[in-house]
Amino acid sequence: MVDYEELAATLLATMQAVHKARHQKDIGERLQGEALVLQYINQCCQSTIIPQKISSDIGVSSARVAVVLNDLESKGLITREIDRNDRRKVVVKITAKGQGIAEECGQEILHKTVALLRSLGERDAIEYVRIMGRLAEEMSKIDI
Fold first, then answer.
1. In the prediction, which pLDDT does 68 show?
2. CA distance 125 to 18
3. What is the pTM of this model?
4. What is the DSSP string of 53-97?
5. Quick check: 93 and 79 in contact, CB under 8 A?
6. Integer angstrom CA distances of residue 116 from 70, 90, 132
7. Are 47 and 93 in contact (CB under 8 A)?
8. pLDDT, tens digit, for every residue of 3-42?
9. How does strand 78-82 pair with strand 90-94?
10. pLDDT of amino acid 47
11. CA distance 115 to 111
12. First and final C-alpha spacing in the chain
């Protein structure tokens, strides 16, 4: 019989060790803040998007999104303008410079993840991805 409390404690300790790993830190930094918002805008938006949609889709507060958008705009990675159809709304558009940076960042994450999966070996890499998918499904069903 499995002791799920002991297993959970081991999992949490392992997750902490993974979180401290350099590769995970690199990916973690890329998947939050400016990089996350920039990549989201680049992948999802052919033309423009409103900040509220960014906030709801990536699960970040509207205040945090506003700060990130200010930083991205000051670096020339996005533009913001008043919506022509609804002057109460602001629309966000990625610049060519922003697209380039978002694509570079995405490629860097992909290459590091490929290297990590390759180091696990074929069987373990496939099993890891399968289990992560299963965890995502289960977490969406229950309130943890």
1. 93
2. 15
3. 0.72
4. HHHHHHT--HHHHHHHHHHHHHTTSEEEEE-SS-TT-EEEEE-HH
5. yes
6. 34, 40, 15
7. yes
8. 999 999 998 898 888 877 765 555 555 555 788 899 999 9
9. antiparallel
10. 75
11. 6
12. 23
